[in-house]
Amino acid sequence: MNCSLSSQRPLQVSATTCPRMRHFYSQEKRPKNKPLCTKSDEVRLAEEASRRYGSLAPTIFSKVIDKSIPADIIYEDDKCLAFRDISPQAPVHFLVIPRVPIPRISEAKDDDTELLGHLLVVAKNVAKQESLDEGYRVVINDGKHGAQSVFHLHVHVLGGRQMKWPPG
Length: 168
What we know:
Strand content: 5-15%
Number of helices: 4
Radius of gyration: 15 Å
Number of domains: 1
Structural class: alpha+beta
């Protein structure tokens, strides 16, 4: 499956460019628990994004924030928003992102402490709202080796099933 990023227009992703983005551009329905890209695709995407754009390029999350592309937003406030992942890896899988982009957790500044804490509290509150009373996993990928494919800090919250260890 080819999920390569467009070298000509990094923010314009078509269904033929990356199957993960199909739902933004079509009304296609797919089985709820069937991811569109494999884990190896995620690593490859992370390597390509890092190589092409570094951590300064605008991301697809910018368009989620300004609502120029659709997303299943389940929470928002003046600092962040939470929305369902387009390729869920668990029965419940959502992301929490800051409105002000921080490319990577490793690039967060001391001034970001309050915002980072807020993201985790929102993750906890939305997990409760989603009935994840039995527990859930919170993940932040950082950089190429962390398989970060979108260079806008995002907190993954996964739950609704028993998680395994080690994760990767």
